[in-house]
Write a structure and sequence with these properties.
By secondary structure, the chain is α/β, with parallel strands linked by helices. The chain has helices at residues 54-61, 98-109, 132-139, 156-161, 178-189, 199-204, 237-255; strands at 35-41, 65-71, 84-85, 95-96, 120-129, 143-148, 165-168, 222-223, 226-227.
């Protein structure tokens, strides 16, 4: 008797259903109270991605923060664990179902405090723009939950029911929220205590004081006929601070006048 070929979902991708979130922190320390990012996604294997590299990766391994990707597929309906359906009213593409996303949100909410200490975010191009001050606010919470959209988005009812905040990485559209999630988590995690190891570096960088960061230089003192500005070699800390502030203000006025509320021509 001929064998029935196995069913497939989404081309060659095989789906192994489990109601347990895939935890990439196996055999890694978990410090009590460590900041945590829970990410609801159809592609849990995309994490930690770049978050597992450099200082954020070391902090992850050291248990200074935690990452919990939650696979959306096991919450799907029917034999094939369907997570989406056609848009009500017609139109192209598919929409993630409210009941499916709702179950994933319920799972993510287990053991978390109220929204003032644990924001719930949907990564959406129609959301409010992500900013440095938002990253600072998130870093002071106990953690956050992110929903990575796919296809044409998420059923509005689940966003309304769970009072999900929509946040955008920028004025462009990605195929899903995973890249945006990693960018926002990176911006937040680097602000956590002991992740960078030098608190001053986060205080002086772009957007921390409403200005773009001043130009940076290092050795050699001369490169291809270009010299490091004399003031930076003077050892006069007061003059160096003054020069850096002036450069920050100049760059901000030229490149991001929206940050100062002035037009570039208002110099």
């Amino acid at each position: 008797m001929a064998k029935t070929p196995p069913t497939k979902s989404h081309g060659r991708l095989s789906i192994s259903a489990s109601l347990q979130p895939r935890d990439l922190m196996v055999d890694r320390p978990r410090l009590k109270g460590a900041w945590c990012a829970k990410v609801i996604t159809l592609f849990p294997d995309a994490f930690p991605g770049v978050l597992g590299a450099s200082l954020t990766g070391k902090a992850l391994q050291d248990g200074l923060w935690r990452l919990e990707p939650i696979d959306l597929r096991p919450f799907g309906e029917g034999k094939h664990r369907n997570v989406d359906d056609t848009p009500a009213g017609g139109g192209a593409g598919m929409v993630l179902r409210a009941d499916v996303v709702g179950k994933a949100l319920d799972k993510a909410a287990q053991g978390t405090p109220d929204r003032t200490k644990w924001p719930v975010i949907y990564l959406s191009p129609r959301g409010k723009p992500f900013t440095q001050s938002m990253a600072q606010s998130w870093s002071q919470a106990e953690g956050l939950t992110m929903i990575c959209g796919r296809f044409e988005g998420v059923d509005q009812r689940v966003l309304d029911e769970y009072q999900v905040e929509e946040v955008s990485l920028g004025d462009f559209v990605l195929t899903g929220g995973e890249i945006a999630a990693q960018a926002m988590i990176d911006a937040t995690v680097r602000l956590l205590p002991n992740v960078l190891g030098n608190a001053a570096s986060t205080e002086e960088e772009s957007f921390s004081n409403g200005l773009l960061e001043h130009p940076q230089y290092t050795r050699p003192a001369t490169w291809k006929g270009r010299n490091i500005p004399d003031v930076l070699m003077s050892g006069h800390h007061g003059e160096i601070a003054k020069w850096r502030k002036e450069q920050s203000e100049k760059l901000t006025k030229e490149r991001r006048p929206d940050l100062t509320g002035k037009d570039a021509d208002d110099a």
